[in-house]
Amino acid sequence: MTMTLGHEILLIVIGLIIGAILGFVLSRIFMKKYLQKNPPINEQMIKIMMSQMGRKPNQKQINQMMKAMNNVK
């Protein structure tokens, strides 16, 4: 049983499409897990940022900013 050139090209294109979809889904899952374990901004970063802006943050303000950052998702 021989395959024609058209069938071979079709199989290659289908393989590329499936690989692209599978790669996208797996990378999305991996990045979600990574960002949950390592959030981009933590309380210490907020304290440093606010003190650089000339403000002395209290814990309530830090908690409000963390809550606001988490609600953006």
Structure write-up:
- It is a single chain.
- With 73 residues, this protein is mainly α.
- The protein is rod-shaped.
- 77% of the residues lie in helices and 0% in strands.
- It folds into 2 domains: 1-38; 41-73.
- It starts with a helix and ends with a helix.
Radius of gyration: 24 Å
**Oligomeric state of the chains present here:** single chain
Estimate the mean pLDDT confidence: 90
- What structural class do helix, strand and pairing data support? mainly alpha
**Count of helical segments?**
3
Q: What's the count of strands?
A: 0
Please outline the major beta sheet.
none
Measure the end-to-end span: 54 Å
Helix-strand sequence: HHH
Q: What is the total domain count?
A: 2
**Percent range of helical residues:** over 70%
What overall geometry do the principal axes of the alpha carbons give? rod-shaped
Strand content: under 5%
